[in-house]
Structures are given as structure tokens and as C-alpha cells.
Design a protein that fits this description.
This protein is α/β, with parallel strands linked by helices. The protein has a single domain, classed as Spore Coat Polysaccharide Biosynthesis Protein SpsA, Chain A (Alpha-Beta Complex), CATH 3.90.550. Helix content is 34%, strand content 18%. Helix 1 packs across helix 2. The N and C termini lie far apart (32 Å).
Length: 200
């Protein structure tokens, strides 16, 4: 099971990450929560035979935050542009083999989901981990065939993001889907996990 997993992360500074959540619970608490979710996501992303790369924003953070992002992991700057441009840049940085991209805000993500994604890419051209809000917590490409219009017309941060992304793929692509997970964007998402999960 060879391939590359990119973990998209931001420097967990108050007021710079999870601002919608921060408006409800406080920017400091939101940043602390994001730091915890990021650390847990990175730990899961290292539990497999794939290569793990941190795609970091802002670019200056590539060389910082070593306690959280671990010196031994490869890193790259996400670069400029919208989310589609940054994801495409990560995909294009891989010379060969399948690649999977995840965020750091889906606390239900486990290493088994990454294994399932790579297994799916053995037969499918693309794989998605749908989020409950209409977005997705994982996107993967087998990279056997080109997708020249990938992310064209995607309405990011809306309930249409997943459907728009699928529509931007070639119509002949075979698409697989994983389990639907909840990502944490607002206080309601925390509440939906239950009081014990929120406390942890």
C-alpha cells in the first residue's frame, strides 16, 4: 500500500484558525482545540506504510511549530490561491502513485480510513470522505488518468463542495466514497459529538 498522505494544516494561532467556531466559544479555545485535533490527525496519518507530508499554511510556518508538527515529517507550503489551487498543488508535487489529502478538523478520522482510501484507489480513479455538511474530509486520486478541470467551479465552504468537485472530474472517472464523518466548524458540531467528546 504505497502512496502519499497530505495533511493540510494551519499554524494554530488564535484568530487565524477556526474563526467561525472561535466566534462562538472564544478564539483561544478554538485554536487550542484545533491544535489538539491537528496533533491527533497527524498521529493517525503516521500509522501506515504511506509517506506522510504536512501541507502547511502560512508558508513561514513550514519551519516552525516543531513540537506539534514533528521534525521528521516532510513539509511543504500550501501556497497561494483558493483551496482547490492548494490541493491541486499538493497532488502535482507527487511524481507517481496515489495521493490522499485530509484536513485536521475531523476528529473521527482514523488510520483505517486512510487504508480504506488507498484500497479504493486500487480500482477507483478518485475517492472521497464525505462530511455531514456537504463538504469532504478526504479526497484521493489514483493519478492513473488526468483530471484537467479538477476543482473548476467548486463552491468552497458550502453544502455544494463535494457535488461540485465530483462534477469537475471527467465523467468517465470511477468514484468511491468512504464513511461520512463530521468536521468541526461550529459549536453545534462540538455539541453533536456529545459532552464527553467535547470535554476531551
Amino acid at each position: 500500500m504505497r502512496g502519499t498522505v497530505f495533511v493540510f494544516v494551519k499554524a494554530p494561532r488564535a484568530g487565524a484558525v477556526k474563526t467561525r467556531l472561535g466566534a462562538e466559544i472564544g478564539m483561544g479555545r478554538a485554536a487550542a482545540l484545533f491544535r489538539i485535533m491537528t496533533a491527533r490527525t497527524i498521529a493517525q496519518a503516521q500509522k501506515g506504510p504511506w509517506r506522510t507530508v504536512l501541507a502547511v499554511d502560512p508558508p513561514a510556518a513550514v519551519s516552525g511549530w516543531n513540537a506539534l508538527w514533528l521534525r521528521r515529517l516532510a513539509r511543504m507550503a500550501q501556497g497561494s490561491g483558493d483551496l482547490g489551487a492548494r490541493i491541486a498543488r499538493a497532488f502535482n508535487s507527487v511524481s507517481r502513485g496515489p495521493a490522499v489529502i485530509i484536513g485536521a478538523d475531523a476528529p473521527g478520522l482514523r488510520a483505517r480510513h486512510l487504508r480504506e482510501a488507498f484500497r479504493a484507489l486500487g480500482r477507483a480513479d478518485a475517492v472521497f470522505g464525505p462530511a455531514e455538511d456537504g463538504g469532504y474530509w478526504l479526497i484521493g486520486l489514483a493519478r492513473r488518468r488526468a483530471a484537467p478541470r479538477l476543482f473548476d467551479g467548486v463552491r468552497w465552504s458550502t453544502k455544494h463542495a463535494l457535488d461540485d468537485t465530483i462534477k469537475s472530474l471527467p465523467p468517465t472517472f470511477n468514484i468511491a466514497r468512504l464513511e461520512t464523518l463530521r468536521d468541526i466548524d461550529a459549536a453545534a458540531d462540538l455539541a453533536a459529538l456529545g459532552p464527553r467528546a467535547a470535554a476531551r
